Amino acid sequence: MDREETSARITALIEPFNKKDVAITDATRFTDDLEFDSLTVMDFVAAIEDEFDIIISMNQQAEIENYGQLVDAVTKLQG
Amino acid sequence: MTDMLDDDMTQAHTDLFSKFDPLIEMRRDLLSTGVTDPFGLVMERVISPTVAICNGRETILLGTYNYMGMTFDPDVIVAGKQALDDFGSGTTGSRVLNGTYAGHKAVEQALCEFYGMDHAMVFSTGYQANLGIISTIAGKGDYIVLDIDSHASIWDGCKMGDAEVVPFKHNDIEAMEKRLRRIPEGAGKLVVLEGVYSMLGDIAPLKEMIAIAKKYGAMVLVDEAHSMGFIGPNGRGVAEEQGCLDDVDFVIGTFSKSVGTVGGFCVSNHPKFEIMRLVCRPYVFTASLPPSVVATACTSIRKLMHAGEKRAHLWENSKTLHKGLRDAGFQIGTEEPQSAIISVIMPDLERGAAMWEALLHEGLYVNLARPPATPANMTLLRCSLCAEHSAAQVQQIIGMFTRAGKATGIIG
């Protein structure tokens, strides 16, 4: 799956968590812009893991701050 | 390379404490309402496992984790005094140097017998037991799969090791299995669970979860801190109660709850377990427990092996309090009482703190638990019952809760 398709699927997954309808770009930050708290992060990560059948460990999550980094990480994790 | 500063120059100073400003502000706001600081209570005198003097007032203790009431057991006290006389006030040394006394070996033997396991290793605190075992056995390239509501000592153990850390939703068997299934083949796997989760007092479906963990080739560590001495036919914990203790690779426990002193431990049947004493840094690089502490722990653990009647009375207390508070209109963390913890859910921190203070004025101490220690950002009044609470005290407690709840408007 290429980056564009991965991004499209993640955009769909983000929607129920994007309570304030923030416009998503690669630079959108999860904590600062989307105001995700730790519980939201857990549910959101679980949704992505299930969608792509991958693991995003806490160690990897620590490196992901914005949307673009997430798409890159998921694209890479799918091998 | 950057140039050194000239003698007459200085750089701007960054206060490393500025990261705590939001918490300092939150505390100031809370205390400015005039409420007593819930995290600054002093026990002026302790009368028994269930009663102390706080602010000059006799107070029933309902938030001490002193589940089996062993802190004033006469045999335990005698053992501690004797050890002080015979071995002195402290060991001043690591377990692997000069800090292993006869008492340390004796308490490890008592633990082996209590759990029916081959090996026991005693740490200076329960926190260090989780920190040490988890960070040492799960290293780089290994995976730790753990419940999201795990205790801070478990999280810190994960952080201190180099393993990949994969949390799953609280007590969600399917979420756990999905994560195990996705771990690359050949990687080492450790599943970390707790018997009783201390915030809401709920238990884990260990039998189902451990069976799945084993199916995927994982090793299993269960923290039974809040169940030891109380849950299971022999007080070995939730895994014993559910008939799956034989499948647990490592049981973590503490002396600071049912045992009634301080210290932590790990028991295991792993044939290579003893190597832990040389490679586990939170075991090696700290002083061992004082002789009086291990002597009291040893005596207490041996008495807990035969505490069936106390266990039965504690269950009665737990059931009575759960029902009494529910009937009074409070929202409780679990539908049914599952442990000796009854957690009362407060609408928010302000009203939780007001209720906590109203209870203190009634003469009742409970724990105020607030985010981030709590799941789902809840504010909780956490009650932990003791086998030494009399039936009359439990009724008194329900009356205090009812009056305080009405005074603060939490119940109608």
From TrEMBL, chain A:
SUPFAM superfamilies, A to Z: ACP-like
Domain Carrier: 4-78
Record's protein name: Acyl carrier protein
Organism: Novosphingobium beihaiensis
TrEMBL record, chain B:
Chain ranges of the Aminotransferase class I/classII large domain: 59-398
Keywords assigned by UniProt, alphabetized: Aminotransferase, Pyridoxal phosphate, Transferase
PROSITE patterns per UniProt: AA_TRANSFER_CLASS_2
Example of a GO MF term: transaminase activity
Gene3D superfamilies: Aspartate Aminotransferase, domain 1, Type I PLP-dependent aspartate aminotransferase-like (Major domain)
Name of a matching Pfam family: Aminotran_1_2
Presence of the UniProt keyword Transferase in the record: yes
Record carries keyword Transferase: yes
Co-factor(s): pyridoxal 5'-phosphate
NCBIfam families named in the record: SerpalmtaseAlphaP, SerpalmtaseBetaP
UniProt similarity note: Belongs to the class-II pyridoxal-phosphate-dependent aminotransferase family.
PANTHER family linked to this entry: CLASS II AMINOTRANSFERASE/8-AMINO-7-OXONONANOATE SYNTHASE, LD36009P
Protein name: Aminotransferase class I/II-fold pyridoxal phosphate-dependent enzyme
Lineage, opening ranks: Bacteria, Pseudomonadati, Pseudomonadota, Alphaproteobacteria, Sphingomonadales
